[in-house]
Amino acid sequence: FSALNTSIMMFAGAGSSYIGGMITSKWEHAGAKYAPAWVAGLGSIAALPFLLLCILSTNFHAAIAGLVLEFFFSECWSGCFYAMVQNTASHRVQGIAVSLLTITNNMSSSLTCYIIGLGFETAEGFFTNFSGITMIRVEMLLGIAGSYLISALFLFASRRYILSESNTEDEKSPLILTSPTEDLEARKR
């Protein structure tokens, strides 16, 4: 299962990122300024039914099919959202912005796993009518579906920060200024 899961993550995730980026590019060229936020957010929501199939199915093959489709839809955010961060951030801080996005993504997924584990330990004493497998399924559904929904909300909200291509580098507000003098010079322009 471990090798199968890794293969699914690798191929479905990479394919999803590529196709999500392609859809975003075509949609942006058609004039949809907020395409990166919409593609990423809709991908998170579209993954939810397949998450349900993966977790609730008692058939191994159906669960694997659900996992493939879940990864295919849920990972479409990465290509377009990383591009959006790079296009929005000042060139001086693009590396920091992408690094912060990567760290935040990794920390939130690790935190979700921790919370699910902590919740399982806490819930064992309270829900004696449920088997351990049922509790894990419920917690995974709540944890993962909750993170997808929260991600979708943040992704939809992020469209406020998408800048048009006509914006100059000076119009992009940097996350970190290199010096107070630079800040004064930028305000004078």
Word description of this protein:
The chain has 189 residues and is an all-alpha fold. It has one domain (2-164). The chain is 76% helix and 0% strand. The chain is built from 8 helices and no strands. It has helices spanning 2-29, 35-46, 48-56, 60-74, 77-88, 94-126, 132-157, 180-188. Helix 2 (35-46) packs antiparallel against helix 5 and helix 3 (48-56) packs antiparallel against helix 7 (132-157). The longest helix has 33 residues, at 94-126. It is globular. This is Major facilitator superfamily (MFS) profile domain-containing protein. Residues 170-189 are annotated as: Disordered. InterPro entries: MFS_trans_sf. The chain crosses the membrane at residues 6-25, 37-58, 97-120, 140-157. It comes from Fibrocapsa japonica.
In brief:
This protein has about 190 residues and is an all-alpha fold.
Q: Helices, strands, pairings?
A:
Elements: H1 2-29, H2 35-46, H3 48-56, H4 60-74, H5 77-88, H6 94-126, H7 132-157, H8 180-188
Helix pairs in contact: 1-2, 1-4, 1-5, 2-5, 2-7, 3-4, 3-7, 5-6, 6-7
Keywords: Membrane, Transmembrane, Transmembrane helix
Protein name: Major facilitator superfamily (MFS) profile domain-containing protein
Transmembrane segments: 6-25, 37-58, 97-120, 140-157
